[in-house]
Amino acid sequence: MKKAILQLSLLASALFLASPFSVAAESAAATMAEILVNLNHFPSDADKDRLADIMESDETSDAEVDIAMAISHIAHQAKDLGIEVGAVKTDYGVAMKRSRKVSEQNSKGVEFLMKKNKVTVIKGTGTLLPGKKVKVGADVHEAKKAVVIATGSRVKGIPQIGLDINKTTVISSDEALFLEAAPKSMIVVGAGAVGSEFADIFNAFGTKVTLVEALPRILPIEDAECSDALAKSFKKRGIDVLAGAKVVKATVGKDSVTLDIEAGGEKKSVTADKVLMAAGRAVNTEGMGFKEAGVQLTDRGFVKVNPTTYETTAPGVYCIGDVAGPPMLAHKGSREGVVVAERIAPQLEPRPAIIADQALEASGMQVTLRFGPEPTTSLTIMTGSHLSGPRPAPGNGDSPDP
Question: How far apart are CA 200 and CA 69, in angstroms?
Fold first, then answer.
């Protein structure tokens, strides 16, 4: 797998080990780079073109959602709004080109920022070494202050049932954004935010979509009302929603894929031109020298970090983005990039991280935000029946320290 290095070009005070495959990691990298540049700590981007491409892919997805929404309004709701239209024709390839053009313009800002500040670009495969060093090819780069890991994550298949991502008939969201035409049929495995989003997009462009989710409802971590509303909307628009379904076998052909599915006590086979995998992500930690450099992983495979500083078990080595642990979201990675950048830059007093502990209770959810590293201030937010119950005294209800 290709890795990337960010190196401070003048003071050589930090190295940045990043991955070109994770939106959240690249968001974190871009945010951190911008802060250090503005503080005159010139970080170098080890793979500028790919950084722009990944950010562009994220924006392309957002643009396609907007397009899909417009198509849906015109095709299904125009008459209710007093608008009469003829047959709606769509072209995924044309929409794709336009959305990429728009996102390309936005991503040029990051490239300009790097070029403006004379950022050094190093391309290659990076390996972390002990003592805040990173090896790229035959060259070893040493950081005086810090190494930052932002290697991100990747979409994972289900190899145990024969469902490996081959980038042709079994694809991830990355390949979906580069298709030249919408397939006639598609099975989306995983109905979280990403899977539901792509089911919506391809349905709008005329694809016959089957959405498969192992848990009892789609959008399983959202409110049940949201799940029910979206499931009804999808079914009304012709999306075949299979919740509580288990994929037991995959037969991958040259031009199509057949999945054997168990749902509701029944067995069925579904065949489609393409299968889009959206059932989870795997973090990028393999073959990067983490163990040898003293960077430990958690039981779940994430890099173990101090939750208030994002420093790993190796002194001077930090970690941000997907690989630092859930949630795997771009804005979370960006915030971590802010915290670490300000710790690396000597002229600023670093702002503390914000830690959120969630304690689920039978009557609702209690969330306590504590401001570290040695929190003296806390804010407790309560939802559900807590809103109508007695308010806690100041300091009461705080969650224990992690």
Answer: 8
